[in-house]
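Figure S7 source data.
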Amino acid sequence: MTATTPHWTPGTLITWRWGDVSGPHFAEPVRVVRDDDEVLAVWCAAGTPVLRKARADGLGIREDKATLFTAETVQATATWTGYDVLRVWPAGRRWAVWCFFDARTRAFEGWYVNLEDGHTRHDTWLHAHDRVLDVWVEPDRTHERKDEDELELAVAQGRYTRAEADAITAVADEVEAVVAAWGSPFCDGWESFEPDPAWPVPSQAPAPTP
Ligand code: MG
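Tokens for the predicted magnesium ion complex:
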């Protein structure tokens, strides 16, 4: 990013949208915590209404993995429940660290490193692409990859080429190296973050059309 990149003021409600936004897609209203040339951090509170992709055949999104990446989808809404999440995207990285807090006890549960890239800013929304594979990091810093099987299915079902999947796996290698070194943003104290109590939980899911 350059010095002329506009930044959002903390407290601003923006929409984080995923994938092809011309059709059914995931999107969440999130509140900006920090936005500068180094990091974009946003808060997604439990109880937030969100957009979700649903299968047109009515099955749960992961219910038939043989058609996980090929099933026809429709736009649906849902409510994000159970956890408050602080998303921290270090500028330029192909991943973001999602700090999970139990919504009832406020206890920090761990870092979910979401492999995502292509972050593009628009006036009131951010666009990014989820890359299926994730890394979960426990508070004691032990970690494991999540959804490696789904990345393989993405290749088998034509979502990604083998080369693209290998590039995604290389990003997970990078994440694990940062974890091993306990680099930023893991070492930055985000697990102690507390939201402004004046922030209301968003009342409406994003409109399907940006
Ligand atoms: Mg993911």
